[in-house]
Design goal:
globular, about 30% strand, 7 helices, alpha/beta
Length: about 280
């Protein structure tokens, strides 16, 4: 008898500053994924809360053993599914800062790993808003990988996507097979760079990339691009929602032999030379 598929789901939603409404949406998506045989469902950055006003996120931030995360742990347990919760407002090191934390729950509702976002979004987006994530968010300091039923996961969050060194380390030093990129990309940056960057990370690491995205308008000031994707190690998009802005789940089966085949035929891990034997010439 053939082994059951290693099935991954990527969820898309439009979170607001209503914790209850967001939970209800997540609950529906989790149950939909579980019914489809998904082993690991990935929810986007800020799945539980998107602030409408400055300071709101700090007010609702909680520790990882607080009631918000306990509720999502119960959801994972009741649905018998692993959950990647990308971008939870974890209570931070002081009253002025939180952590933007990617939480991995197993099917018993236990926290397996947490990753605090390293690269903070402090930018002036052309034609859009000025963002200063570091005003209220403390940066993480650790690279995180996690074993799961579908393979070895590399945990990241959103703006991390623009820093390929992180993904290179996840693959070549920590042996990740699947890279998780929960996000809330702006509409402007998403239109320009979202799919290109995701496919580049897949191609250069020879990993699957699973990118759950926020979509649409969260309020008067904030809008996310959407277009949740699953990409294979050759850079091929193998799942996406038909509607870039829709709430829903897209599903794909992970084939670990596909990773092995791509890496064997193009053994870039054996060909790397930068950082080892090359010398730098002075100008």
């Amino acid at each position: 008898m053939a082994a059951p598929p290693l099935r991954v789901g990527v969820a898309q939603m439009t979170s607001t500053n209503d914790l209850e409404a967001n939970y209800n949406t997540c609950s529906r998506l989790v149950k939909e994924a579980a019914a489809a045989g998904v082993n690991l469902l990935c929810l986007p950055e800020s799945f539980s809360f998107v602030a409408a006003k400055d300071g709101e996120s700090l007010k609702i931030a909680q520790p990882l053993d607080g009631p918000i995360m306990q509720r999502y742990s119960s959801l994972a347990r009741e649905s018998n599914i692993w959950l990647s919760l990308g971008g939870f407002q974890e209570k931070g090191p002081d009253d002025s800062h939180l952590y933007n934390t990617h939480v991995l729950l197993d099917s018993s509702g236990n926290i397996r790993k947490t990753y605090r976002k390293i690269h903070l979004f402090d930018v002036d987006v052309p034609g859009s808003m000025v963002y200063k994530e570091s005003d209220s968010t403390a940066a993480g300091e650790s690279i995180v990988v996690a074993e799961s039923p579908v393979g070895l996961l590399g945990l990241t969050v959103c703006y991390d996507l623009r820093f390929p060194e992180l993904y290179q380390q996840l693959r070549f030093q920590h042996h990740a097979q699947i890279l998780l990129v929960p996000s809330a990309f702006t509409k402007v940056t998403g239109e320009a760079h979202w799919e290109i960057l995701l496919r580049a990370r897949a191609i250069e690491t020879q990993c699957y990339v699973v990118a759950a995205a926020q979509a649409g308008r969260h309020g008067e000031k904030r809008e996310s691009y959407g277009d949740s994707l699953i990409i294979d190690p050759w850079g091929v998009v193998i799942a996406r929602l038909p509607d870039r802005l829709a709430t829903g789940v897209a599903v794909a089966d992970i084939d670990l032999s596909r990773i092995d085949s791509v890496r064997r035929r193009m053994p870039i891990a054996q060909h790397q030379r930068i950082g080892s034997c090359l010398k730098t010439q002075s100008v």
